[in-house]
């Protein structure tokens, strides 16, 4: 399994429900309906938001809204969520449910591999649930130390262990508020005054009251942040440790999680908030994964377009994450997520972000029209903007804008992804328990998957996915070079995207992407000189298609959402590869193309 432009279907498991309903293991033919759905839409990979057991803790956010059981607050990294279990009885013993769950997910991943598709597991290595046993255990150890010191008849002391801004560890009796600016608490020292004090180092971030803190440095939330400043964290999560009870030596906790994923058949790892993970950790973990499964693919959440805590400073440092493959050093990260869901067609900052992603990853950026972290989907946001439109005009505009944004996201990066539901212009379904359920999802599909429903854009997304696949540019870095109005007063934007072979650094070709910047105003005319379209096959020859092709010299071409022209570089010579993918394009009665993909 080689790279093949990852076209990723992002599946929130709370939409599809128990594993038994979609793994295919219970079917006589063994076929997974989820795999069939993804293939029907032109996807070659599925990324699951975490399938693992989530927290049982609820919390109130700054707006006093209650959130519960986030999929990203993981309570058990080795068991699937009870609500997703393949076992029909959620009250069944956890070891029985786990046994059955593993059978089902292994079956699913095996079927994915047989179809040449990747199954991507979401790795949340930046934080864990507050009620995760490893947090609870550390909480208890701290409480035991404090209780012990208070109960002693002779005078015992407790000091803070801190790391200063120079990386030096020191002890101090107090930790004033101003110290939070330059120091981090990494543990405590304790014992009888006048004697050498014992030291206990934390795995998780804590304040001066020893309360565990979340990503934003706040207590009383559902997650707890890994304490990267503490050497105890590296030893436990990455290096490995010895079990105090059994004496057994184990690999780092995150390596155990990776082992579990590989044993289950996952062939891709998506790293949540990757830029927060120290690059030496990432290098070691991805090297470990690659050594175990050489075909593993990695994708990093980078969120470069938002003003997240330290994001703009930390993301460039991901370039330091490296692994060794066949004696050659290369980027540990294969794909880095672009912030295309915040980008408009004329936003030039996407050019710089594309270069940044190419600098920190092997294949550069991965685009998306929206994701699970946004408050609303494209469809939701546009619906609010067009609330005064007539219903039929509003739905047409929503569909056209969703298609436009998908085309932009798909063609500015080697990889791209979209949430399940984008194909029917669905509202956001977040990762909390109250956000969605399978019944809601099935009802939405029943309504919107009718072929004539104006918000069913499945075929239009398939068209984009086929177009990208037919470029045969799986080894290319896609780089946006320029974006500008096609002409003064035009609603069309021309985006020029260069394709470069990531191995040989040869120029492969140029993609001219025409985007309708105002689909709500109707189709925009494309001048005659821009209407030819060519695709490239594996021999670098031109395939003839009638995909948006002019049939007469005086025929006018109007663009509802997008149109693309690929100009292959005649001097580019692809590097021969034994596992070459062949693309067979068959012309149907309809204007669309049907692509059949076969791996030699």
Give me the secondary-structure topology.
Layout: E1 7-11, H1 13-16, H2 33-40, E2 45-48, E3 52-54, E4 58-60, E5 66-68, E6 74-80, H3 94-114, E7 118-123, E8 127-129, H4 133-151, E9 156-163, E10 169-172, E11 184-192, E12 198-201, E13 223-225, H5 231-239, E14 241-242, E15 249-250, H6 253-264, E16 268-271, H7 279-292, E17 297-300, H8 311-314, E18 322-325, E19 328-331, E20 335-337, H9 349-360, E21 365-367, H10 378-385, H11 391-411, E22 415-419, H12 438-448, H13 458-470, E23 476-485, E24 492-501, E25 507-516, E26 524-526, E27 535-536, E28 542-543, E29 557-559, E30 562-568, E31 581-587, E32 593-599
Parallel strand pairs: 1-2, 1-22, 2-7, 7-16, 16-17, 17-20, 20-21, 21-22
Antiparallel strand pairs: 3-6, 4-5, 8-13, 9-10, 9-11, 11-12, 14-15, 18-19, 23-24, 24-25, 25-30, 26-29, 27-28, 31-32
List keywords for this structure.
600 residues, alpha/beta, 8-stranded parallel β-barrel, 4-stranded antiparallel β-sheet, 13 helices, 32 strands, 26% helix, 26% strand, globular
């Amino acid at each position: 399994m080689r790279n093949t432009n990852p076209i990723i279907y992002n599946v929130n498991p709370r939409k599809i429900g128990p594993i038994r309903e979609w793994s295919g293991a219970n079917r006589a033919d063994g076929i997974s309906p989820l795999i069939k759905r993804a293939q029907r839409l032109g996807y070659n990979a599925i990324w699951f938001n975490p399938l693992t057991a989530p927290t049982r803790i609820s919390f109130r956010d700054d707006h006093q809204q209650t959130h519960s059981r986030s999929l990203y607050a993981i309570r058990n990294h080795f068991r699937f969520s009870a609500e997703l279990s393949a076992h029909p009885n959620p009250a069944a013993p956890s070891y029985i449910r786990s046994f059955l769950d593993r059978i089902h997910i292994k079956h699913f991943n095996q079927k994915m591999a047989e179809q040449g598709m990747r199954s991507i597991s979401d790795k949340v290595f930046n934080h864990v649930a507050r009620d995760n046993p490893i947090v609870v255990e550390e909480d208890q150890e701290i409480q035991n130390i404090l209780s012990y010191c208070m109960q002693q008849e002779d005078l015992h002391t407790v000091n803070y262990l801190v790391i200063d801004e120079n990386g030096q560890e020191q002890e101090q009796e107090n930790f004033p508020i101003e110290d939070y600016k330059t120091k981090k608490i990494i543990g405590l020292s304790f014992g009888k005054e006048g004697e050498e004090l014992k030291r206990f180092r934390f795995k998780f971030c804590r304040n001066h009251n020893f309360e565990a803190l979340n990503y934003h440095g706040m207590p009383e939330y559902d997650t707890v942040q890994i304490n990267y400043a503490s050497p105890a964290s590296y030893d436990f999560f990455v290096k490995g440790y010895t079990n105090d009870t059994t004496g057994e030596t184990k690999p780092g906790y995150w390596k155990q999680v990776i082992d579990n994923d590989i044993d289950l058949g996952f062939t891709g790892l998506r790293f949540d908030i990757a830029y927060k993970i120290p690059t030496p950790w990432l290098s070691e973990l991805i090297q470990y994964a690659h050594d175990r499964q050489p075909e593993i693919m990695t994708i990093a959440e980078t969120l470069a377009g938002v003003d997240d805590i330290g994001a703009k400073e930390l993301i460039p440092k991901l370039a330091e994450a490296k692994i060794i493959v066949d004696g050659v050093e290369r980027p540990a990260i294969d794909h880095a997520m672009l912030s295309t869901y915040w980008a408009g067609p004329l936003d030039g900052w996407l050019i710089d972000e594309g270069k940044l992603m190419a600098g920190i990853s092997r294949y550069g950026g991965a685009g998306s029209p929206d994701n699970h972290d946004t408050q609303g989907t494209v469809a939701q946001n546009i619906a609010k903007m067009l609330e005064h439109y007539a219903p039929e005009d509003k739905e047409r505009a929503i569909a056209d804008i969703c298609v436009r944004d998908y085309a932009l996201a798909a063609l500015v990066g080697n990889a791209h992804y979209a949430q399940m539901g984008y194909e029917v212009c669905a509202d956001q379904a977040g990762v909390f328990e109250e956000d969605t359920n399978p019944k809601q999802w099935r009802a939405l599909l029943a309504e919107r998957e009718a072929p004539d429903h104006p918000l069913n854009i499945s075929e239009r997304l398939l068209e984009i996915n086929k177009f990208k696949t037919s470029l045969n540019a799986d080894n290319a870095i896609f780089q946006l070079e320029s974006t500008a109005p096609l002409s003064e007063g035009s609603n069309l934007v021309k985006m020029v995207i260069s394709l470069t072979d990531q191995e040989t650094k040869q120029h492969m070709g140029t993609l001219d992407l025409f985007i309708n910047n105002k689909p709500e105003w109707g189709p925009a005319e494309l001048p005659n000189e821009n209407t030819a379209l060519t695709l490239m096959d594996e021999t670098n020859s031109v395939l003839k298609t009638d995909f948006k092709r002019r049939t007469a010299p005086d025929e006018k071409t109007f663009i509802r959402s997008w149109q693309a022209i690929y100009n292959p570089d005649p001097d580019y010579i692809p590097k021969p590869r034994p596992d070459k993918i062949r693309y067979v394009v068959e012309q149907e009665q309809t204007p669309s193309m049907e692509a059949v993909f076969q791996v030699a």
